[in-house]
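EI: anyone free to look at a 543-residue chain?
SC: sure, send it
EI:
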Amino acid sequence: MGSVLTEAAWGWSIFTLVLLAILIFCWIYIRRYQSHQESEVVSTITAICALALALITSSLLPVDIFLVSYMKDSKGSYKEWAADNTTRKNIEDTVLYGYYTLYSIILFCVFLWIPFVYFYYEEKEDIDPNKCSQVKNALKYTLGFVFVCSILLLIGAFVPLNVPTNQNSTEWEKVKLLFEELGTSHGLAALSFSISTLTLIGMLAVITYTAYGMSALPLNLIKGTKNVVYERLQNTEDLEEVEQQMEKIKSKCKDGRPLATGDRRSLQKLEEKLRTLRRRDRHLETAEKSCWLKFCCALRPFKIALGTFFILVALLFIVALFLSNLDKALHSMGFDSGFIIFETNLGNPLNELLLILQTVFPLDYILIAIITMYIVFTSMAGIRNMGIWFFWIRLYKIRPGRTRPQALLFLCMILLLMVLHTSYMIYSLAPQYVMYGSQKYQEHMNQNLSNSRQDGSNTTWVTKMCDAKAPEDQCTVTRTYLFLHKFWFFNVVYYFGNWAFIAVFLIGLIISCCKGKRSVIEGEIDDDDSDFSDDDLMERHHA
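SC: here you go
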């Protein structure tokens, strides 16, 4: 019993340290991007908690894999403390309840809390400042999200996963079977269906933002930014050109004649462009004197090395994802099974690396954390470059120090859904690791083989890595796999989503290679910025 507590405590203690690191990271991350003019306490706390919740859920994956892996020794036999089936079940239930709790909180945030806070601040911008009216209207809009959540839970609860063996059974017997199945699963199917639906939405966001950001972030680091002196000189030339064009138009009305409609429209556009160029000149002047910019220039070799490392990691991701999907296309059970494969037939470099690192805990935990953080950073790079869109309508821009509370909530909900999808992404990259960790089992053979042992009889035992062909009583499947793969039709969508991810990455890579260097003040200036917000940002730069 003491060994059980030691193994579990070791895994959960690492998880606690990761939890603290996640909270610190989320606080810094949100504080960096939130607007200092429109900062709201409730929206800030909500955004931090939502992002932390997503990362905490992802960090539970290595703990799940660690616990099922350490139940067995290197020969494929259960360890003494895990020999009892009841003990193994208690440990598995601990992780299961952890997922129950976290996923339930995710549903609460996505369908109730975040929508309520979002609509509350949307109503706050109206003329009527009445608090009761704000709360009432926010609750009214939030009820729509609650209704959708209820529908998803009902569908997940009553979709029949087991077909009645008796084809002549009555309708009442079929309904009774549904309720018996619901009671047996303890609501696992309902929760799994809702989370899988959110993961599906997260997959669309990953294809849109992460695939592009995974190519844009490394290449931006490698290419760097424009020279601030040259950029300011170019801006000065543009200023002079605009002023000359304005003088040319104004000269038409020196004799008192009014300007034509086309000239007035052109003059108005030139005035707006002139204001933007003058703001750019102020920012470029500040950047030219900035000590931080000079420090960043000194770090140029480090940025090139980091960008090179990121692009190599991205290529490793794409190769592993391509091999995994190709393996499913060639050796899976087909469309109706959700493209499930019984064993890994094509070599997957990331899967092999994780299996090696898993034997020395917490190295695999560190690698999974790096993968998760990498996906978050590349996702944020994609969102920052593209903004938040609803089809062809741009809803919000994400800029450091200038992101509105509503945009922050949108950002964190998207990141929440994206990180949810990382569990399936990691499964696609390393399927055997996510399903069974480093578990092995012993199989009876009728002939003598190398790497085998014989007992007193003629029976030969061979040690094999656990896969889908292994007996159920010899290999324990992780709770993560059960949550994300209970419905085969979601696996089909994820499979084709992986091909779309690879295609978007390659397109983004070509676009990023063709684009020039970024401006040194990119994201600080926009045409619809107010002078007040511009002055506020300048004050913080001087500070």
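EI: The first helix runs from residue 2 to 33.
SC: 👍
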